[in-house]
Specification:
Layout: E1 9-18, E2 24-32, E3 36-41, E4 50-58, E5 63-78, E6 81-90, H1 93-111
Antiparallel strand pairs: 1-2, 1-4, 2-3, 3-6, 4-5, 5-6
């Protein structure tokens, strides 16, 4: 049973995760919604940890960089990698609007 308030869309989208020491690592989103995402990553993340994320949305006529914090809600092993479920906790109204428009664009593309 899925208790999510916002439907997720399957994606294969690069995301950069900034670590507390200043380093960054590259990962991929497996799904995305206006409120959170699934991140494919080689190791588990502790629930409750807040990650700094950066990713780009590519639309028909524009590209937008999104910087957001995501709180780890859960993670599970899938094949030889982990899927880390994050909830966005620090997203501006402008970035949320861009995300909603991007997800709508993807849904429209997939339904045609």
């Amino acid at each position: 049973m899925n208790n999510r308030k916002h439907a997720r869309v399957s994606v294969d989208l690069p995301v950069k995760i900034y670590l507390s020491g200043g380093d960054s690592v590259n990962a991929r989103f497996s799904d995305l919604s206006e409120a959170g995402a699934g991140i494919v990553y080689p190791v588990a993340a502790d629930p409750g940890v807040v990650l700094s994320l950066q990713f780009q949305l590519h639309g028909k006529n524009a590209r937008h960089t999104i910087n957001v914090k995501g709180q780890v809600m859960h993670n599970f092993l899938y094949h030889d990698e982990y899927i880390i479920g994050v909830q966005f906790v620090d997203i501006s109204l402008e970035q949320r609007s861009l995300l909603i428009a991007y997800l709508s664009y993807l849904r429209k593309l997939r339904s045609s």
